[in-house]
Amino acid sequence: MTVVTISRGSGSMGKAVAEKAAARLGYACLSRDVLLEASELYNQPEVQLQSAIADAPSFLDRFTHGKQKYIAFIQSALTRHVIQDKIIYHGLAGHLLLKNVSHVLKVRIQADHDSRVELVMKRDRVGQAEAARMIATLDGQRQRWTRSLYDADPGDSSLYDLQISLPRYSIDAAADLICRSVEFEPFKTTPESQRQMEDLALACRIKAALVEDHPSISVVSRYGNVVVYGASGDRQAHKLKAGIDELGSDIEGMNNIEVHADVEPPDTAV
């Protein structure tokens, strides 16, 4: 089976495509559900989580690491779902949150400007000029968010496996393309790719448990062997090790855990 992420701009009909494809495949379809679960799991206001994953980082965020903390919670909640497979996630940044797992099909839904404006006018009951302004604002925020946190451009085609343009393709046709694509061999779950997903979920869970006190950490897991990359300095390393000790040794799926300070984390780290 496969996990599908759908990236789309406001008014691009990505939600309709996701729901149609999920119904045909018999997959669960997730978006806001992940924010609600993250809110409950980590006792955080949903509005803060929504802001973290939708709004451009502020100047203050660069010093408080506020967004990194909330994104760690969201990523942990998301991986708890997708580890089960057969999921379509059409929330923001799924293609970035579920990196380095081969059976994740990353889809980008695009629509022309006029179609997007028309949909936002109907959906939000606003005039043409206001709808265009809203779209431009959201697009700008998402571009700055992606560049600031992931050093990437959401319009970069290399981030996706499949790009679909609407209304060139209808919603039905777009859903059909996704259903056909999940059957391709590269996107089928294998024992190795499932191991990748389990390692990602474990790393995300550990980061979410530590990020409140250590917002700049990175975590990587391979076959349940976890490495936490922390800040420099003996005192910071000692505090991080103490926090890891408090996690206990009975975290499901973890074989061992160690701390590396003053070491650049690999690209696979979260």
Q: What characteristic shape results from the CA principal axes? A: globular
In which range does the helix fraction lie? 40-55%
Distance between the termini: 24 Å
CATH-defined architecture of the largest domain = 3-Layer(aba) Sandwich
- Main sheet: strands, sense, barrel: 5 strands, parallel
Q: Number of helical runs?
A: 11
What is the H/E string?
EHEHHHHEHEHHEHHEEHE
Strand order across the largest sheet: 2-3-1-4-5
Which parts are unreliable, with pLDDT below 50 for 5 consecutive residues or more? none
Overall pLDDT confidence = 85
Name the CATH class of the largest domain: Alpha Beta
What share of the residues does DSSP label as strand, in percent? 15-25%
**Class from secondary-structure proportions:** alpha/beta
Please give a structural write-up.
The structure is a single chain. This protein is of the alpha/beta class. It folds into two domains: 3-187, Rossmann fold (3-Layer(aba) Sandwich); 191-261, Alpha-Beta Plaits (2-Layer Sandwich), CATH 3.30.70. Helix content is 51%, strand content 16%. It is built from eleven helices and eight strands. It has a five-stranded parallel β-sheet. Strands 6-7-8 form a three-stranded mixed β-sheet. Helix 3 crosses helix 5, helix 5 runs antiparallel to helix 10 and helix 7 (113-124) packs across helix 8. The longest helix is centred in the middle third of the chain and has 23 residues, at 128-150. The chain is globular.
